[in-house]
Structure formats: structure tokens, C-alpha cells
Design a protein that fits this description.
Blueprint: E1 7-11, H1 16-27, E2 31-36, H2 39-48, E3 53-57, H3 63-76, E4 82-85, H4 100-121, E5 130-134, H5 147-167, E6 173-179, H6 185-188, H7 195-205, H8 214-225, E7 236-239
Parallel strand pairs: 1-2, 1-4, 2-3, 4-5, 5-6, 6-7
Length: 246
């Protein structure tokens, strides 16, 4: 019960790693707030979480929506103890086919939106607070067709380092988790012809010869958000079955 009576906000908590993390926070006693763009999946996610949960529809790329979101959290809980920024989108697009629209959409969701969402949430956070950003091992190594997504996730890793330095004086820790190939809906939504072939290829390059599960990433998120990591800030924790390390 590391998060008993604490308020844990999961931006992008309606599926995949976000939902697994929200469930885990609730299981350890947190009062959970989840957000998502899709009202149907958001309500399904809320029903799947056993505990005190508040589900708020909000688009991470809509900067105007951030104010309303934080106002609702302030009214309900008056503070944020843990902020997990998980909202994101993936896309494999060959470099020569990337359009300004592709670029702007991915960065709006993966970098610009999270940046200003954190800025809006910060007044509700105080000493002992923890922020965890979700990046990706995509920022660690080159992969054809991954240039825009990887650049946006490299931004998240850099943001964790810089905010960690900027907020350490306030007693707020900021860390980053970078999942490797993980079996989540973001894989299923990828614009590729053969999803199963893509998954098989991912499994083949991971030293453990499998994809990660959302719950495995969630355990790393909870560690970074908990007092177990009280002397850790600014790091990037790779959860990738050894893919980058070996």
C-alpha cells in the first residue's frame, strides 16, 4: 500500500500501460484519476479499476482542455501526489513519406501536449510529489520509419532530465520510463499491413524472445513514483527485455 490515500493521475489511462498502471496504483491504495480521448474506452477502463477512480475525458493535444482537467482534479482532490504522463501515439512512417501534418500530430500528442499538461498540473504538486514520463526505447537506437515518433520520445526523455533538475528544489522527483516492445493497443493500431508479422519481428530481436506486458511496465512506473525511489530523479529506466543493453 505504497500509495494509500495519495492521488495518482494517469494521463492516457484508458488502455495499455496507462490502464495497467492505474489499476496498480488503485491496488496500492491510491485515489486514481485517469484521462483519455475516447469516452467509451475511458468508461470501460474506469469499470475495470477496483477502487476510488475518477475518469475524465480529455485530449492531451488540446491545450485548452488542460485547464478544465486540472480544475476538476482540484475540485475533487485538491492535490496531485503522482503524475504519470502516458498519453501518446505511435506511427511507423518512412522518412520521405512524412508530411507536416504527420509530424505536427505526433508531436502535439507525444511532446507538446504533455509538456503543457505538466505545467498546468504543477501548482497542485508539492514536496514529495513524483512525475513519471513515458518515453520509449525508440529514442535510444535508430529504426527505419521511426524518425518522428523517436524524436518525440527523445523529447520526453530530455524533459525528464531537465524538469528533474528544475524541480528538485521543490522536492518533486521527475523520472522517465522507456518501454521496449510491449503488447498494447498502440501496436494493434499501427498502420502496417501485417500486425502479427510485426510482433514476431519484435519478439525476435528482444534477448528474452518475447514482448513485454503492460503490467511489467506498470511495476517500473510504480517503483519510480514510490518512496522506494526517493533518491532517484532524472533517470531513464529501460524496461525492454535487454534489447538496448545487450
Amino acid at each position: 500500500m505504497r500509495f494509500k490515500e495519495k492521488v495518482a493521475v494517469v494521463l492516457g489511462g484508458n488502455s495499455g500501460i496507462g490502464l495497467a498502471s492505474a489499476k496498480a496504483f488503485a491496488e496500492e491504495g491510491a485515489r486514481v484519476v485517469i484521462t483519455g480521448r475516447n469516452p467509451a474506452t475511458l468508461q470501460q477502463a474506469a469499470a475495470a479499476i477496483d477502487g476510488d477512480v475518477l475518469a475524465l475525458q480529455s485530449d492531451i493535444s488540446d491545450l485548452d482542455a488542460h485547464t478544465a482537467l486540472i480544475d476538476e482534479i482540484r475540485t475533487k482532490h485538491d492535490r496531485i501526489d503522482v503524475l504519470f504522463v502516458n498519453a501518446g501515439v505511435g506511427a511507423f512512417i518512412p522518412f520521405e513519406e512524412v508530411t507536416p501534418e504527420n509530424y505536427d500530430e505526433i508531436f502535439a500528442i507525444n511532446m507538446r501536449g504533455p509538456y503543457f499538461a505538466i505545467q498546468k498540473a504543477l501548482p497542485l504538486m508539492g514536496e514529495g510529489g513524483a512525475i513519471v514520463l513515458c518515453s520509449s526505447i525508440g529514442h535510444c537506437a535508430g529504426l527505419p520509419g521511426n524518425s518522428v515518433y523517436a524524436a518525440s520520445k527523445a523529447g520526453m526523455r530530455s524533459l525528464a532530465r531537465n524538469l528533474g533538475a528544475e524541480l528538485v528544489g521543490r522536492g518533486i522527483r521527475v523520472n522517465c520510463v522507456s518501454p521496449g516492445p510491449t503488447d498494447t493497443p498502440i501496436i494493434t493500431r499501427s498502420k502496417v499491413d501485417d500486425i502479427e508479422a510485426m510482433k514476431a519481428q519484435m519478439r525476435s530481436v528482444v534477448p528474452m524472445k518475447r514482448m513485454g506486458e503492460p503490467e511489467e511496465i506498470a511495476r517500473a512506473v510504480l517503483f519510480l513514483a514510490s518512496s522506494d525511489a526517493s533518491f532517484i530523479t532524472g533517470i531513464d529506466l529501460l524496461v525492454d527485455g535487454g534489447l538496448i543493453s545487450f
